[in-house]
Amino acid sequence: MKVGELAKRAGVTAETVRHYTREGLLQPRRDPENGYQLYGSDSLNRLRFIQRARTRVKLMSCVWREEERVAYPAD
């Protein structure tokens, strides 16, 4: 699948897919006929994993901030 299709199926933007590709987290193959980057189901699974991990990190950050607020209230 091309960048746009992968992005749509994963619920992210095409720029997000390109970013993770540049960072080496996604590794597409090139279509020899037209040079398009093509992604397989492994890329979709990895992208979904990354999104779940990011969500969990954000959640944990909120929990830690709340714990600090309760443990060390402002005067």
Automatic annotation (TrEMBL):
<dbReference type="GO" id="GO:0003677">
    <property type="term" value="F:DNA binding"/>
</dbReference>
<dbReference type="InterPro" id="IPR009061">
    <property type="entry name" value="DNA-bd_dom_put_sf"/>
</dbReference>
<keyword id="KW-0238">DNA-binding</keyword>
<dbReference type="Pfam" id="PF13411">
    <property type="entry name" value="MerR_1"/>
</dbReference>
<feature type="domain" description="HTH merR-type">
    <location>
        <begin position="1"/>
        <end position="54"/>
    </location>
</feature>
<dbReference type="InterPro" id="IPR000551">
    <property type="entry name" value="MerR-type_HTH_dom"/>
</dbReference>
<dbReference type="InterPro" id="IPR047057">
    <property type="entry name" value="MerR_fam"/>
</dbReference>
<dbReference type="GO" id="GO:0003700">
    <property type="term" value="F:DNA-binding transcription factor activity"/>
</dbReference>
<protein>
    <submittedName>
        <fullName>MerR HTH family regulatory protein</fullName>
    </submittedName>
</protein>
